[in-house]
Structure formats: structure tokens, C-alpha cells
Amino acid sequence: QVQLVESGGGLVQAGGSLRLSCAASGFTFSTYAMTWYRQAPGKERELVASYSTGGITNYADSVKGRFTISRDNSKNTVYLQMNSLKPEDTAVYYCNARRPIAEYWGQGTQVTVSS
Asked: What b-and-e string marks burial along 49-73, b requiring 16 or more CB atoms within 10 Å of the CB?
């Protein structure tokens, strides 16, 4: 059974840091591109950061220089280190695994940044 389980969200003050984790199971993790998305209330889901199977990373302009995506294929886990958090980073953060013929989503973890 495929599972993506996010953790690490919570409430933090502006300027603080959080580290999100997404533990994967039920599929061959190393063969999937991994992406973090987020969705704020009343807004569309947006890409935050991605990590391809070839080691290429990509970030939304709004998080460049503050967030870092990494993955550990030995632990079937992808991480999102978030520093210098801003109130506008408040959202539900989702983990996504994708190949051309398959895609999986986690249930999301709430991140709230207070001003």
C-alpha cells in the first residue's frame, strides 16, 4: 500500500525554522521525483520545491534562499528545511511523488507562521 506521511509542521514565529519530513512506503522511492507543494486558505496549491531522480532541485521564487529540499533514498524520505519563515508561508504543505505513469500525495501538514 502506497503511503506518503508528512510530519514536522506546527506553529512558529516569523523568522523561525521548521523541518518537514515525508516518509514514503509502498513504491520504489528512488525512481520518483519528489515535490513539496503548499496550499494557503483561499489559494491554489503551488509548487514549493522539487527534487528529481537525477538530483536536480527547483524552488519557487518566493522560497529561494530560505528553503532547502533534500532526499535520503536509503530512508525513503524527503525533507524540506524552512528557514526565515514568514507569515505568508502559512499553508498546508503536501508531499508529492511522481513518475510519468503514477503520482501519489500525502495528507498534508499544517505550517503556521505568526507575525
From this structure: bbbeeeeeeebeeebeeebebebee
pLDDT digits 0-9 by tens, 23-59: 999 999 999 999 999 999 999 999 999 999 999 999 9
Instruction: State pLDDT tens for residues 55-104.
Output: 999 999 999 999 999 999 999 999 999 999 999 999 999 999 999 999 99
Reading phi first (left if > 0) and then psi (alpha if -120 to 50, else beta), residue 48 is in alpha
Q: How far is CA 55 from CA 15, 21, 32, 69, 73, in A?
A: 28, 18, 11, 11, 11
Cβ atoms of residues 25 and 83 within 8 Å: no
Q: Name 104's bridge partners.
A: 97
